[in-house]
Design brief:
CATH topology: Rossmann fold
Shape: globular
Number of domains: 1
Distance between the termini: 41 Å
């Protein structure tokens, strides 16, 4: 299926399926297009993976626009949450119109293992592969989602035009993929990232541990048993320390945490220390706020500006908006 037919078919599938939020387009010249719950067939997962896509005003698949992947959090969140709760379209439309960021596409994949069920009623994926290999979200994202949708929408196509971010569980997922696959993204931003220190992981109740991490690291593990090879493979601090700094140095890292978000502050300070120890360039900032959308909505503008600094101009090859 060619790119134009894909886009038309995707829109028809969403609207035809009776999803009220399937298409949101306004008539002004400064408005982009937002589609939610657009299906992408995954052979790895043997299911349709829904996503939300934002395409800027005057979008053309031939423009080679940069793309930002935005990952959602846990609880009841899904691929539409950035659009429904995060004011995604109005933020992008305004910032592009004002010239604060260049035109860019945004893709929000669904991080649930069962898109038909609420996230809080199923084990979390945390954007990882399951220990038993039965559900491989990470492989789907890297091997299918990114290459398929970048080709279909005519965006990204190279690390210099690709960014990734997310909040809470999605912040962890964004930093995870940017460190596990060094050089794949020009920029990675974690908002209130749900990294856990060893102490926090040990103190976690059995029910919470199994719900959040059991599928990826092993169910029923207690105390120090949780620090097995699978947990260490996905532990952000361990990844940062074991990866050559020159590889991670190809990505710009940005950590933003609410000043009232106590648990995330402690854990993200550990990430800052790891980046500092390895002499990897990064930004760590705090702003007033807690682990909530009141904080994440405001943080989105900071993330998009950070991404814009890292994306090259497709015409001249120079970096846009150099210097903060």
């Amino acid at each position: 299926m060619n790119r134009r037919r894909f886009l038309l078919a995707a829109s028809a599938a969403v609207v035809g399926g009776g999803v009220a939020l399937g298409l949101n387009r306004t008539s002004t010249d400064t408005s982009g297009t937002l589609r939610m719950n657009v299906p992408m067939r995954s052979d790895i997962l043997d299911m349709d993976v829904p996503h939300t896509v934002y395409l800027p005003p005057d979008y053309s698949a031939d423009d080679g626009l940069p793309v930002v992947y935005l990952l959602h959090g846990g609880t009841t969140d899904d691929n539409t949450t950035w659009a429904r709760s995060g004011e995604l379209q109005v933020t992008l439309d305004t910032m592009i119109s004002d010239g604060r960021i260049p035109p860019m596409a945004v893709l929000c994949p669904d991080g649930r293992r069962d898109p038909a069920a609420l996230a809080d009623r199923q084990p979390r994926t945390y954007y990882m592969n399951d220990l038993d290999g039965q559900f491989r979200w990470e492989d789907m994202f890297v091997r299918e989602f990114i290459p398929k949708l970048e080709e279909h929408y005519g965006v990204g196509g190279q690390p210099a035009k690709r960014g990734i971010s997310g909040y809470s569980m999605g912040g962890y997922g964004a930093l995870l993929h940017a460190t596990l696959y060094p050089g794949m993204f020009a920029a990675a931003a974690g908002l209130s990232s749900s990294h856990r220190t060893d102490e926090q992981l040990m103190e976690m109740s059995q029910e919470e541990y199994d719900h959040l991490f059991g599928a990826a690291w092993g169910y029923g593990l207690e105390g120090s048993e949780r620090f097995n090879e699978h947990e260490r493979h996905y532990n952000l601090v361990d990844i940062i320390h074991r990866t050559p700094p020159e590889q991670l140095g190809n990505t710009g890292f940005y950590l933003d945490v609410g000043s009232s978000d106590d648990n995330a502050l402690v854990a993200n300070a550990e990430l800052r220390e790891a980046f500092t120890d390895q002499r990897i360039d990064h930004e760590f900032v705090t702003h007033p706020g807690a682990h909530s959308w009141d904080f994440w909505r405001g943080a989105l503008t900071r993330v998009l500006e950070f991404m814009a600094h890292r994306f090259p101009d497709s015409t001249t090859g120079s970096f846009l908006f150099e210097g903060l």
